[in-house]
Amino acid sequence: MWGGRFADGPSAIMREINASIPFDKALWRQDIAGSKAHVAMLAQQGIVSAEDATAISSGLDKVADEYASDGVPEDWDLEDIHMTTESRLAEIVGPVAGRLHTARSRNDQVATDFRLWVRETIDQTDAGLLALQQALVTRAGEHADSIMPGFTHLQTAQPVTLGHHLMAYYEMIRRDRSRFADTRGRMNESPLGSAALAGTGFPIDREMTSEALGFDRPTANSLDAVSDRDFAVDYLMAAAQCSLHLSRLAEEMIIWASQPYGFVRMPDALSTGSSIMPQKKNPDAAELVRGHSGRIIGCVTALMVTMKGLPLAYSKDMQDDKPPVFEAASLLALSIAAMTGMVADTTFNTDRMRQAAELGYATATDLADWLVRESNIPFREAHHITGAAVKLAESKGVPLDQLSLDELQTIDARVDERVFAALSVDASVASRASYGGTAPEQVKARIAEARAALGMD
Ligand code: ARG
Looking at residues 415-443, what average pLDDT do you find? Predict the structure, then answer.
């Protein structure tokens, strides 16, 4: 394709290091779409004849049909998807194929293809995240009143509802979707027509190709357009943040599924057995979601470091932009699907969760608050009295609300029988009715809002 100036061909090593076709063949649909938009514009502007444009365009359709049925051939001599397609086009339609690359460079071509690919991936990711949110909201609705221990430092802190806990992840995913939407909005400009770096002398119509490819407008600076990979970094940062959320959810499911916790039974379909220990059911899918998050974070690092020292405009380093994006996208899609299945089909052992909240003395703060409120005791002193009550209950192996009034009064005479209304886990949860709190009425209100936002009713 560029042989005119060269006496010798490339060495075997040059061919191998240069070839991106093994991975950028994933861009073939976008490459064909970009070329069809380009050639239609060249015809409209009278840069190529209508007849040649028709021949090129139907030739591109034939190439696309071949790729769809037989895959994209990998010939390292042809370097990348752009030259592979152009070369096959020439075999099909003859020398007229050479007119397609008028007023275009692989630099604006690859920038266009890659943006189209990332944009589609964002749309698919959003659909996956919507399904995950729907699963979370559905399960939260089933468990808006189910009591579980809420943790800080992974120590039982105060009772919360399982619905409240699941809705925390709904919020995280809501922010992830908004980050992807921001990325999509910002990136949706067409680099096509920026040519190699400086624009072109041909009378092209950039608005036309921009519109044909679903972009909002053409990019405004040709140097920036061919060297900008912000959209890929933005996408990867959003993907990494999203994977952190999935990893935290996976981690909780792993802990909850362990025998000492026994809070959940994971779906068989997302678990594995052990080859040696017959009793085991391992949370491998969740563990891999947790692991994949590390790899996705590695992908952001890879691309940022690739870009950080590059002068304007295009440098070949930028060919290395694609593998981390492709890798992160497939890891994230799998992780979203796995966690959606996990949320939808996990069995929650709500008796066990409630018992853990009761025996973990999750209502100790409620006792202290009651002493402050009803007996006007300073909080620090109330904290001390409550500590003694927890110690006694612990020594007897009972929840706080199963201590007798006599027992409580030996610790502090100012306690009376009204305290029992504050000591149950249900009373504790119901009392936390501040906006966004764990009281079932609050949780149900947030679920109703979420269902409306997701179009679930
Ligand atoms: N395969 C190249 C890439 O992915 C296409 C652009 C090549 N441009 C060039 N000036 N050699 O970056």
Answer: 95
